[in-house]
Structures are given as C-alpha cells and as structure tokens.
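User: Mind token order:
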Amino acid sequence: MSDNADTDADPYTLHDGDEGENGERGFVFWADEMADEIEVRAPEEPIVIKGGISPSGVPHIGNVNEIMRGYFVAEVLRERGHEVRQVFTADDKDRLRGLPRKLADLEGNIVDLGEVDAGALGRNLGKPYTAIPDPFGCCDSYGDHFSMLIGRSADLLGVPIEIESNTAMYEEGEFEESTRYFLENRERAHEVLSKYQDGVDESYIPFLAECENCGHLTDQITSVNLDSNTVEYECVDVEAGEQVIEGCGHEGTATLREGKLPWRFEWVAQWKALGVDFEPFGKDHAEGSWPSGQDIARNVFDFEPPVPMVYEWFTLDGEAFSSSAGNVMLVSEVLDLIEPEVLRYFFAKDPSRARDFNVERIDLLVDEFDRLERIYFGEVEADDREEQRAERIYPFCVEEVCEARIRLPYTFAAVLGMTDDSDLREEIARREGHIPEEAPDWAVEEALSRVESARNWARETENEYDYDLKRTELPDVEVDGNTKRALEELADFVEEGHTPEEIQGEIYEAAKRNDVPVGDFFATGYRLFFDQEQGPKLGQFLGKLDREFVLARLRRER
C-alpha cells in the first residue's frame, strides 16, 4: 500500500475539461477535439488512424496506449458517419539490438529468457525481427509472435485494428517509391535531418541494407544506383547501447526492397503509403521524431503530416514499465482482475495527464467506473460536469448500453470470493440488496462473474480479502473454557438477529465478559472460519454469511 495519502485517496482523478468564466469546469472529451481537427482537413475516406510499435519486448498495457487513443477517436468519427480504418504498424523490419529479459507466450504468460530458446535471439542480434526464429517455436518469426500478441490485446478490448507488417510492406514494394524519392533527394533529406540528429554528415544515405551473407542490417551504403533501384553496401559493425554487433564485412548489392529506411524517414513513408490522417504517440516521439517527421513530410516530400496527438505515459504501481525489470502487465493479465469496459474507461481519460495504474488500489478505478455508469442511468446525484462526462464517455466504454446490467461493488465481490460456494455467493448478494429479486438470469450471472475477478485481485495483491472460507470442514481449533463460553454467547447473539456492525461490537464484549484477551478471541474466530491467525473484519463478514452455518461453526458443530 502506498504511503502517499493523495495517491491512496484517488490515483485515478479525471482532469478533462476547461475552466469556465465563473470557475466551473465543463467537460470536453478529448476524442471529440481530435475528431474536430481531423474533419477540418476534410480528408478522403476511409479516414486512416494509425499507431505502431517495434517488437522489442513484452507488449504490455503501456503499449496499448496508441491502440486505445486511436480507438476513441475512430469511434467518434464513426459516430459522425465517417468510414474509418484503424491500422497498427508492426515495425518488425527493425533490427534486434539486445536481448530482452522477459517475453510472453501467446497465452499471455510472461516468462524469463531462460525458459525459451534464447539462442534463437542471441545468434541473431542485428537482424530484422521477422528474420529471427520465434523463441517459442509457435510462429514464423519473433516479429510475427509479437504482432500476434498485439492483435490479441486489441481483440480482448474489442478494438478492430488492421496490423500492417513493415517487413511485408517493404517486400511488396509499398515503400519503394518513398525510398527511391529519399535517395534521389538525399541532399535535401540530409539537410533537414541534420537539424534534429547529430552525426549526419554530407555522405549520409538514408537506407539500411540487409546483408545477403549474414542477414544483418548495415547503414554503410557505398553507392546508389537509381536506374536499377539498388544500393551497394558493406556489412559493418553496429553500436547497440553498450555493446557492438559485429558485421561480417561482406560487400554486396541490395534492392530497395531488401533493406529499410531509418526510422525518422520510415515513419513518414508509413504516413504516405497508408494515407494516415491521425496518429497518437508518446511524448518521447513528440520531443524527437515528430518535429523531424513533419519537417521531412512538408519539406522533402511536400505533403501535410497527419493530425498528431501526444499522450503522457502512465506508470505501473508507481514505476516505469520495464521488461528487463519485470514491471510489465499484459492486457490479458489486467482482464483477469477487471472487466474490459473498466480498462477501456481508464484509457478514455485525458491523455495529456500522467497517471498511475495502481493494481493494489484497482478497486478505486472500478468504483469510479461504476459511479460513471450509475450517473449515466440517473441512479445517483451528480453535478453538471459529471453528468456531461458520463453521457459522453460511458457509451464508448461498453459494448452495449444496457440499464438492466448489475454491478456488485468490487470489494464486496472480493468478500464473496472468500467462498467457492456459488449458491452462497448469490444468496449473500441478494440478501445484501445487490441483486434485485426480479433480475434476469443473464444479469445475475454477469454480476457474479465479478467475484472471480475480485478474488484474483485479492490473491494478486495479497490484500485484506485474500482468505478462503473453510466451509466444508471444521478446522482443528482448541479452546479453553472461557473462550468456549464467549463463543456460545456470540452464537446466541448472532441467532437473535443483529447487524454486522452490532456483531463486530459483540465480539469485543463477549471476550471482555469472559476474560479472554480480545486479540486472542479474534484469532480464534479467524482459525474457526479461515484456519488462519488473521482475516477480514470478522463481524462484518459473519453478518453476511448464512446464519445456520455461522451458528454451527461458532458452536464447533461443523
């Protein structure tokens, strides 16, 4: 649990909107603003929204930023009657520059490098990701494996994306025109790029050839022949961080399809080849690649770059995402804890604000989403801005707007997760008033499905709800005479019919009346019901269970 009081209070504060003349805040959905900017340009349809990533490690929820930011803008445009394509480029022609310490299989399990064929990666440093064998042995290449995971993440969130492989685009000649243009105008390309990148001298040629001998990508281009659309190259060493990837020294010829453009030029070539109208990207690109990209587009290629949108990164449990440090979480892992609509809501928040995805307090995010839903259906009081926010955002978060849907409070669902008895879960939920008597069966089933999610959360974080009710067998608990009398009195009190709060108070009083240390009496109760020395707030928990079972257990009958 965090020591930061503000973070514990609410790490998911929404900041959308602008100050009004009188200080009030009106809600403006950022995706509407982006759609407005796109429409001003009157683009041809289909409107193309793009994201992209290099397959360098585990595709975690931080990488999903570009997919989800693009999704909301795409949905707004579709709502306005536009035809939209959402594409996602796998920059899989990039070279592997180092060994990741963590990978993920197609089922979403994160594994250490030692658990797969690490040699498949180690022997192929410097080669394109799609030229490297899949270390899991299940896909055609390492690049394909990563792209498959990205596609599955989008599917889990109900986002229809078209994955475009850079490798395939090069092989099919979709970048050939752009590559040739850059080489024809390499003096101008050099002039523009030198403003943004050090070490770009007059001999710079914007192309990396794939060595026919060893498969490495080399930037040592010795000559260009545009009559044959080929380049001459020498396979030289490449610096990759603190290590050097050795080239084989081979001198050869490559066509413009047998290599790739440097990233800053390749990004522009993607815009042109795919007809991109809008692209969100992280602040790292905003400070680096974007200024050069728009300059190259306008002053080398003579076309207008896409409408941009910069998003802030978010952290995971207060720390930056890091495959090497193991601080990663896949979409599939998140959806073991919360519903897809709750995660979509997280990404619907203002992208210009940095925030933390706090797994320990994910209950606050769920509560916030549940309140949004209740506001949308007019079930709780809210101010004008909250109503505007709910009215605009909520329909984009759910697959279908349905007022009959039931949400169990998340921490209450975690309490129900202490028992495996599905009938008891439903009985308690009904008794507590969380499931209406006439609720349809599908709504009851969907509501109770949250129990497993909350239970997974309790076990993942080892929090106060991480206990298993021992319902089928009586734990072996020895009690002395005083404790036995205190348990009998507590059972009689429960049998009379009292609230959970009153039962909690009686636990203290029964212990005191019978000269049993209060801490020891609570420990006895925890051993009887959980076979552990500690547990949840005991009176609250007993008050929610079926009374016959509680009485029998307190009297140590079963």
